[in-house]
Inverse folding.
């Protein structure tokens, strides 16, 4: 089955073409992503109307490039299914992709399926690594996958989702306030590191670790910083990250009050302490959820799953439990349309109708 995927829920205009014949037979024929990050960086975050305007400008070109890359000559004959993100996301941005998808579905008389962006992130775990063409193999193990706990961490969401089989999802925990990616972005802004904050915090935290003298982490430092781990011992699987961001804010304020110069070393240490606290909460709560629900595996996904420290910590903790760990290849951690095409493939197997008229924007869609 040849699936065309379209993603415009936030600040990436993306179109992909996948050849999918089940979870163990996935070939990526094209995966085109046009990022607007530079444009929004100026505003310190994504501006919805600006994002929509850029999607309008870019989508036809991204679509044509994807078809060319995938060597699609006759759209009507070669494409079997169109999948588009219908939520959650920014309303104006989502609408551009949906309108575009509806137009081509109607024109070519093709089935159209609306895809949950967060399910897309989950299925990014099944995408084969780029550069292994014509690979048909994904990295995920074939047996003993389910039940699985999904930790989905992005700029807008932090969710723990139980997966009993393909397309069988149940939300078991989520953030009560800020998403973890949002917290990375806000702390980065406090430290003057720009947008998006995740990669900047991660790089600064790594510099701190590199510059550490051997021995006890905190004793050796001029300003030992340890941030709280909000809700780490709560009995549920919910999260809270706004307090952690506030702790960073107070730390910076106190240092300034004491007339301490905020040097690069101090920025690195705050970045490290923040990342360590956030990753500690995510790791411990996910392992606890896996124990309580007796799952076979843990899957990580979403933009924050690009974080090297989180990937390493959660992998080590998962494997210590004797469970299977998976995270997407780095190229698929951020928003892309390959994950949307794949999620569309799975949703289509279970859907009653895939009519372009039934697809509508659902900006607040949840599991
Ligand atoms: O999934 P995504 O690309 O877009 C949404 O659907 O939100 O996630 C974007 C988020 C941003 O908050 C960004 O700062 C964060 O992912 N992020 C990271 C890293 N790379 C991106 N957070 C921590 N460490 C990273 N290396
Ligand atoms: Zn996303």
């Amino acid at each position: 089955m040849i699936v065309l995927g379209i993603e415009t829920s936030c600040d990436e205009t993306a179109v992909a073409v996948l050849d999918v014949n089940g979870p163990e037979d996935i070939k990526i024929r094209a995966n085109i992503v046009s990022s607007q990050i530079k444009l929004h960086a100026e505003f310190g975050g994504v501006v919805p109307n600006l994002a929509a305007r850029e999607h309008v400008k870019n989508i036809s070109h991204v679509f044509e490039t994807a078809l060319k890359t995938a060597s699609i000559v006759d759209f009507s004959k070669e494409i079997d299914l169109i999948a588009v993100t219908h939520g959650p996301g920014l309303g104006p941005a989502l609408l551009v992709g949906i309108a575009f998808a509806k137009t081509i579905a109607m024109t070519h008389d093709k089935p159209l399926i609306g895809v949950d962006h967060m399910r897309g992130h989950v299925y990014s775990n099944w995408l084969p690594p780029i550069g292994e063409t014509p690979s048909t193999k994904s990295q995920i193990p074939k047996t003993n996958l389910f039940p699985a706990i999904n930790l989905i961490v992005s700029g807008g969401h932090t969710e723990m989702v139980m997966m009993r089989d393909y397309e069988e999802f149940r939300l078991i925990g989520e953030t009560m306030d800020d998403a973890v990616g949002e917290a990375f972005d806000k702390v980065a802004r406090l430290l003057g590191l720009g947008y998006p904050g995740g990669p900047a915090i991660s790089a600064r935290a790594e510099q701190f670790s590199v510059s550490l003298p051997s021995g006890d982490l905190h004793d050796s430092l001029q300003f030992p910083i340890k941030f709280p781990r909000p809700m780490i011992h709560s009995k549920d699987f919910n999260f809270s990250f706004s307090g952690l961001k506030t702790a960073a804010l107070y730390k910076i304020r106190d240092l300034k009050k004491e007339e301490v110069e905020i040097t690069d070393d101090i920025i690195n240490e705050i970045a490290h302490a923040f990342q360590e606290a956030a990753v500690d909460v995510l790791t411990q709560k996910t392992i606890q959820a896996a124990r309580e629900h007796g799952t076979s595996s843990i899957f990580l996904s979403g933009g924050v799953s690009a974080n090297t420290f989180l990937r390493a910590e959660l992998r080590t903790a998962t494997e210590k439990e004797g469970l299977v760990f998976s995270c997407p290849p780095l190229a698929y951690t951020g928003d892309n349309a390959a994950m949307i095409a794949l999620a569309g493939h799975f949703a289509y197997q279970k859907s009653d109708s895939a009519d372009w008229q039934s697809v509508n924007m659902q900006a607040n869609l949840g599991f």
The CA atoms of residues 96 and 257 lie 48 Å apart. The chain has a mean pLDDT of 92. The domain at 148-327 is CATH 3.30.420.40 (Nucleotidyltransferase; domain 5).
